[in-house]
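Changelog note: in this version the structure field was regenerated for every chain. One regenerated record is shown below for reference.
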Amino acid sequence: MYRYFCFLFLWITTILFAGLTAGQKSAVARVPEATITESNKKYFSEEQTRRNIDVSSLPASSGQNIGYILSRYSSAIINNYGGAGSLASISLHGTGSNHTQVSWNGFSMNSPTSGQVDLSLVPAGLIQSVEIISGASGAVFGSSTFGGSINLNNEADWNNRISAFYTNVIGSYGSLGHRLSFGIGNNKFQYQLKAVSDGAENNFRYRDSYKANKPWVENKHGRYSSLGLINNIYVNFGKGNYVEAGLWYQHKMMEIPVLMGSMRNSHAEQRDSLFKSFITYRKLTEKSALVVRSAYLYDYLNYVDKNKAEDTVYSVDSRIAATRFLNETDYRYYFSTRLALGGGVAFGHLAGRSGNFGGRIAENDFAVFGNARYATGKLTVNAGLRKEFYKGLNPNLQYSAGLSFRAGERVILRSCFSSKFRKPTLNEKYYKPYGNPLLKPEKGRGGEISADWIVFGAREDAFQLNAKISGYYQTIDNWIQWVAMDTLLSPVEYKKVQASGMETWLEYQFNTGLFHLDGFVNYNFNRSVILDTYDENKTLTGKQLMYVPRHSLKAGFDFGYKGMMIGFNAKHNGIRETVDSGDDYLQLKAYTVFDLFAQISNNYRNIDFALAFRVDNLTNKSYEIIRAYPVPGRTFHLTLTLGFSKNNPEL
């Protein structure tokens, strides 16, 4: 362990020393600022497939959460546990919900207790863009990247002088939402405020297929309310010195309805709160980039239940709180226009408190990492190493290697191979009575090969057709699974899993200046199977993982004419396993849903106006995403947006 640490420490120290001394000399060649302001994670992972979504430009995003956006505009599988406001988890590359790292402006949001992120807690109105990196390496991104990395970003608009927008959303089943955004600044300072309030009764009707004669039932006790607030400050001090700070508060209350087939009433409720703040300092020169950043993250969950509605005492009152302090420093130095080296250190402190843990739990972790990139006109090669240290554990050295090759003007080929890991969560280690503090990290390795192809057209052409295809393969050892032990659930290193598959993406654009047509078709094949279990349960060998469809298909288009736009989306998920039993009878059927939206927008005397209408589940399809959790049928939403903006005259 220590020889790896010493080697990496000396390597990174050498890089830092060389950068700090050479930075005082005249630069050999000027590196464009747009390049050196990229984060190390992005700069040293060019060989991995990625997709960027400009959330603020999507007409169908108002009143929705990030899970809705990813479900329709990316290859991710989003599993919703019911109606509006219910838990929304993510699956990438055929892995579990805790195998995708979700970050906010560079800091991991994955819950220290569950390991996953509830995407219903992230209103689309608070985020400007989303970056999806499939199969992100553990050496570059850290823990929980078997599926990939989702980066939620807030970005400075240095062109903005002042702007203010208000959005009102009303919809079916008592849904009501408000959005407020405000920005002010110049080319040296920018301030942004975004606030979101959402709620719904969720009193939709559904056919209960788990009861005799499949009667129509009203979803009761499903009300939810949510409030979110984000502040961001960006300061350009000049001479390559930048400071960015952010603060995010989010609270959600959700009544939890009964499952399908239940003959009783529900009185359970759950409250989720988060408070996240960060500050980042960047020092940029013509030859280097230094980033120092810190964050304070707080997560709180309170689940309560009672036997009768009139009871004044809860039969269940579970509270879990987790606090994290994260600190990271990374540096990048350009030895030439071809060669760049980077590296850094990270330190984190985690404290969890819950009666389910028996009190307060505290952990520290430390990581040291280094990266190298060599680029010619057509070929770019990246490599990385990372070593993590935890008390009582010795995780493997993480590594990554990849390349991208421009094969002519129309084709880019990419390939990568890397190791990955996931830290056991607080619940898995300390949840009483069967949490296991000795659990080892999940570990694995895998690779991806992809191609980007401009099939037809160029940037300035009216018609363009682009295609992307990728194939991936990885294994995951020590897959931690909660299984029944003496009638109670306990986490064990349960499985060895193999995930492989193919993702394809076809995009087209047609723009005449008078009207435009944008569309896409996405098909995924995921084969995620259990190779072995700790108890040698042969009935599970070769079975698909729960809630990972082998086949999924998405398609959509936007048609715009002057200030009018109409769009259509379709989504298909194939058959899914629902339990670790190998019982085909318990599989969920395939389903296909369609969404439709229309929008009219205009500008009158510097006032921006937009009116949008959206229909989800156009055909009123009855289906299940998660077994026995009812979802609404056809729903309607009407959105009104008013606002204004002025740009800086000096830009």
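Spot check on this record: The two ends are 53 Å apart (CA to CA). The chain is about 5% helix and 55% strand.
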